[in-house]
From TrEMBL, chain A:
Its main location: membrane. It is found in: Cell membrane. The chain crosses the membrane at residues 71-93, 113-130, 163-186, 225-244, 269-291. Belongs to the binding-protein-dependent transport system permease family. Residues 66-290 form the ABC transmembrane type-1 domain. This is Sugar ABC transporter permease. Keywords: Cell membrane, Membrane, Transmembrane, Transmembrane helix, Transport.
Length: 301, 296
């Protein structure tokens, strides 16, 4: 018995120590720091709890950033999931339909491998790459537009407040779609082929089969996708910071970047922590809302 | 956008039935190839640009390089310090991955296989870490690391990477260790195997498939980390210990000002190639590892 206790202690204490120091304690400290006016330079600070909250509610930069996160929260999952479902169903049932049954397309494996490329690249590489893609003189996009004679469409993508946010959204979609093609594709593998054949015989077209058969049967996976994309949308920090740094004139700012700048550029650690707490409650709200919205009967085969 | 994309296959089907079986695959391939080009062309463009001269990059973004200028790569590796950042990333990720897998497996094994007071609390403490946005911890974490004297150091970053990888690792491996048969463990105990021997000689080898999946996921998480090094590798002299992600973005800013675009593209290509190569070799493990991580 003593051997067992010793064993449990030896195996559990080192991981718990590491986890406690670097994860639990920062999370726990974030809440009290959020109520102070700590600047980090002086060891002294005062408790100003309500002031930080008041300041947060009246901070137009914060609201602008929050609005962008809200837009991402709606658009990123919708666009990414629709594209993911579309390409995944093209790959797994988009091939011939003959007497033997419904087929996937040829080269399905190649598509799955290629679509996944952006997912394995680090977000820093993706950001730097797309910053260059959008560059007004040296970028590939404007180079292409000028090459086909559409010089008028070659604009300063990242320098224009009208376009910067959408450029960021496009990059986020670009880097995420491939993963969901693979994820949905795996889910669709488990749907029996004869369901599609029966539906097609009954005169349903491919769009109907996608909406009526595929989507209900992979609904669980779509929910998972939504959760993960919501996490990406609430974050968004790295891509925004690298590509636009929130600009021009905070037209593509997000809450994470606000927090980072407030803390590590302005040295307002108390207020930055308050933004972090706001982000935490935002995440919590989204999680609760999500659970309510997606509560829907599972379709069993 | 989606309406435009999803209507053509439906129309193709709506035509006369005999035509549809031939038309649909063609339409499918058109869309699929379209997206394949969209994912690969930017990467190819970066690789090609890494061989161009700055003048070629400035005047014709779409042309091929007139010759293979490997000097760009040498300049990025040595003068822009991509080589050093690469080494730093490798050191940190090797250490962190080892620590994550060892500590994660140890904790998960005990939580999955032993009953003791407080085990549920410990389990939820670990798993709960997955639900909090890392931004919440950013400010206090900076000071925790600074007060330990680890700010801007490789060991500091290693420990932090390992700590933030633990929630998912413990969560995944706990459920994995539960699925392993108890008969083998009992047989080993009867044969006189101790708790430690049982773990290292029986359980770890049996858990290999699960360990590989988590390791791949953790490798990508740690190798691609951006916000943690940005916050923690600050201070005097820290730029010598920057990791690849951080060094590359700094390069993007600096070379942009200096106009050394070819060096920037070379640096990007150098950073990109190893992961893409590893992915092409182990793409199954990558996809299943990431799927396991995402489906938490």
């Amino acid at each position: 018995m003593r051997g067992k206790r010793l064993f449990i202690a030896v195996f559990l204490l080192p991981p718990l120590l590491l986890y406690g120091v670097f994860v639990v304690s920062p999370y726990a400290q974030a809440f009290p720091i959020a109520g102070t006016n700590w600047s980090g330079l002086s060891p002294t600070y005062e408790f100003v709890g309500a002031d930080n909250l008041k300041r947060l509610l009246g901070d137009e930069y914060f609201w602008t950033a929050l609005r962008h996160n809200g837009l991402l929260l709606v658009l990123l999952p919708v666009v990414t999931i629709l594209l993911g479902l579309f390409f995944a169903s093209m790959i797994s049932v988009g091939g011939r339909a003959d007497r033997v049954g419904v087929h996937g397309v040829r080269g399905a494996g190649v598509y799955r491998v290629v679509y996944f490329f952006p997912q394995v690249l680090s977000v820093a590489i993706v950001g730097v790459l797309w910053k260059q893609m959008y560059a007004s003189n040296t970028g590939m996009i404007n180079g292409f537009l000028r090459g086909i004679g559409l010089d008028g469409l070659a604009v300063a993508w990242l320098g224009d407040p009208r376009f910067a946010f959408w450029c960021v959204l496009a990059v986020l979609v670009w880097m995420n779609v491939g993963f969901y093609v693979v994820l949905f594709g795996a889910a669709m593998q488990s749907i029996p082929r004869d369901l599609y054949e029966a539906a097609l015989l009954d005169g349903a077209n491919r769009l109907t089969t996608l909406v009526r058969i595929t989507v209900p049967l992979v609904w669980d996976t779509i929910q998972v996708a939504w959760v993960y994309l919501a996490i990406v949308a609430i974050d968004g920090f790295a891509v925004v910071q690298i590509i636009t740094d929130g600009g021009p004139s905070s037209s593509s700012d997000v809450v994470g970047l606000r927090l980072y700048k407030t803390a590590f550029a302005d040295g307002q650690f108390g207020y930055a922590s308050a933004i972090g707490v706001a982000m935490f409650f935002l995440t919590l709200t989204v999680a609760v809302m999500f659970l309510r919205v997606t509560r829907r009967e599972r379709v069993e085969l | 956008m989606t309406a435009v994309l999803s209507s053509p296959p439906a129309e193709a089907v709506a035509e006369a039935p005999p035509a549809r079986s031939r038309a649909l695959p063609v339409v499918s391939h058109l869309f699929l190839i379209g997206w394949a080009l969209l994912t690969t062309l930017p990467l190819l463009w970066a690789v090609l640009s890494s061989f161009k001269s700055d003048n070629e990059i400035l005047t014709s973004p779409w042309s091929l390089p007139s010759e293979m200028r490997w000097a760009n790569w040498a300049r990025a590796w040595n003068e822009a310090h991509i080589g050093r950042y690469f080494l730093n990333s490798a050191i940190v990720v090797t250490g962190a991955l080892t620590l994550t897998m060892l500590f994660g497996a140890m904790a998960a094994y005990v939580l999955a296989r032993y009953r003791f007071r407080g085990s549920r609390i410990v389990y939820f403490a670990f798993v709960g870490g997955m639900m909090f946005p890392v931004f919440l911890a950013l400010v206090p974490l900076f000071f925790v690391v600074r007060d330990l004297g680890l700010l801007g150091t490789l060991p500091g970053l290693t420990l932090v990477y390992a700590a933030y990888s633990l929630p998912f690792t413990v969560f995944f491996l706990t459920s994995f260790f539960r699925t392993l048969p108890t008969a083998v463990a009992e047989a080993a105990m009867v044969d006189g195997c101790g708790h430690f021997g049982l773990f290292f000689r029986v359980m770890l080898p049996m858990a290999r498939p699960g360990l590989v999946s988590v390791a791949v996921f953790n490798f990508l998480f740690q190798w691609n980390q951006y916000v943690l090094p940005l916050v923690l590798m600050q201070g005097a002299g820290a730029e010598r210990r920057w990791v690849l992600a951080q060094g590359l973005t700094a390069l993007a800013v600096n070379e942009g000002y200096r106009g050394d675009f070819s060096g920037l593209f070379a640096g990007m290509t150098i950073a990109m190639l190893p992961v893409i190569t590893a992915y092409l070799i182990f793409h199954r493990q990558f996809q299943s590892g990431l799927a396991a991580g995402q489906l938490r």
